[in-house]
């Protein structure tokens, strides 16, 4: 049973990580090493979280195997092997790949060199600290540590830094996730927040366009100064390939402008400056493309939320869209998600569903906060997670143990990982959906997951009293504890920081509830959405005007397309019908005129003395506007000398006899 469950979890977690990476990354444009490295980090971190409930239930089963008659306990060697493989691999690869992706070098060798230098500084700091600690242990005669204990100390130091980040992110997620669903149920809240985002995004979009223009101007100057016969021209061509298409067409290569750079003593940019310019081009183009895509997505969200607010008072209970989706919907979706179903869900059911979900998540948050403050107490057991697990252990209900552990750690991981996806550190780190995340942010998120997952699992084992350093019992440890080690080696961490630091989650939850961080950012000049702020009201009004302007522009565009379509359908068919009728149904007068023209043409070719003049008339007859409603026709067009218009309402051609007088 455990083997089948482990196999299903491995497959499910792989597709989950692949789906998230496809949503945030770009498989077509980003480097394969970046995709593989990020997928490996996300997959292994998610896998550890998902197989930990199976590890707990297997460990409890092994503890109680003396009470199970005629049953062999399952082995957890497969789980131990997965833990051993998943722990060190991403931490070693991701920092190097991150430096490689951020480098602006023009060759693989140059990028590897830059990555090695940056990582040498990064890892050298850790080695220096660890070396100082080893010297202290060697000099102090009272300390006798073995290799396993040193390994545990290194893991404990890394987990301590991860626990510091974990509590910060957990305190934010425990309050913000339930509150986001509760505010989402309020009428008009999401629309006001969307207006606020539109105003901020327009500012960022304008700044990205200005930055791109400045960088493209520098690229143009470099491209004009370095001609194609210069040794650094290959680097310039590499930079030009990263520029947008419209800028490439403007700049060009100027292949005809040959210059001998040895004869002229001009100052050319160095390769180091070109590397810096290459890095700026990659960053500015990525930022410009991201803001453009996000602006279009935000417009669609604003239009849809305005449609929801408009349809709430609809008496027909049919959801009406202002703009139809450009992409055709699936027939299955159209059949089951009809306008009536959409109206009941968007205007009636979804607010109540969000309120119920917010209440349920709030209850889970209270349980987590209570357990974080009381998990160190073993007699009596105050942690609710430990109470649930021990009650199920007494009844030998291992399925209930696995389900309870899965729901608990799933909620904890959602609170922590969703904060990783939400936070933004200026333009240094930002996970943008719809394939707009750059390579550096993807790899940085993988590093954060690798830092947060081990302390998250150890914290969960402490909440359930499955860690021997918390329960103070000499029982069989879990497979995860046997790999990651225990905190007993360092008493000040096991009995101090590891016990009391998670209690700070209470203060962080209170600060998040009263939006203290948001208020501090507003005071520093970083505008955040707050309902009781004048700056927020101004930005909401500005965003509302921007959305209204874009809406009018799109409405005019659709009206123009509709008019052109109606004109084509109305007059295009009439024109085809009139042409077809003129070819098939010939008027008797017209046929009579054709016979007269044929006779006249035949007589023209028999007159040798007048042949040149008649040839001119023959050419002009093909283009003259003829009056087929005339009652009589003259035999010779040369007889009409009166001009273009005649009183009978007939339009005739101009005089033929004077057209070629000047020739």
Estimated share of beta-strand residues: under 5%
Biggest sheet overview:
2 strands, antiparallel
Tertiary shape: globular
Oligomer: single chain
Average residue pLDDT: 77
Helix/strand/pairing category: mainly alpha
> Largest beta sheet: what is the strand line-up?
1-2
Please trace the helix and strand order, writing H or E for each element. HHHHHHHHHHHHHHEEHHHHHHHHHEE
Radius of gyration using CA atoms only:
38 Å
Measured as a percent range, the helix fraction is 55-70%
Counted by DSSP, the helix tally is 23
**Which stretches are low in confidence, meaning pLDDT under 50 for 5 or more residues running?**
586-609, 617-663
Question: How many E-type strands?
Answer: 4
Q: In whole angstroms, how far apart are the ends? A: 103 Å
Describe the structure.
The chain has 663 residues and is an all-alpha fold. It has a domain at 3-191 and 323-539. Helices cover 70% and strands 1% of the residues. It is built from 23 helices and four strands. The chain has helices at 2-24, 32-63, 77-86, 88-102, 108-139, 147-184, 189-225, 233-242, 245-251, 271-311, 331-336, 339-374, 384-394, 398-422, 439-463, 468-471, 479-484, 491-500, 505-513, 516-523, 534-584, 588-604, 611-621, and strands at residues 424-425, 429-430, 645-646, 650-651. The strands form two sheets. Strands 1-2 form a two-stranded antiparallel ribbon. A hairpin with a 3-residue loop joins β3 (645-646) and β4 (650-651). α4 (88-102) runs antiparallel to α15, α6 packs across α12 (339-374) and α6 runs parallel beside α19 (505-513). The radius of gyration is 38 Å and the shape is globular. Residues 586-609 and 617-663 have low confidence and may be disordered. This is LMBR1 domain-containing protein 2. Residues 593-609 have a biased composition (Polar residues). It is a multi-pass membrane protein.
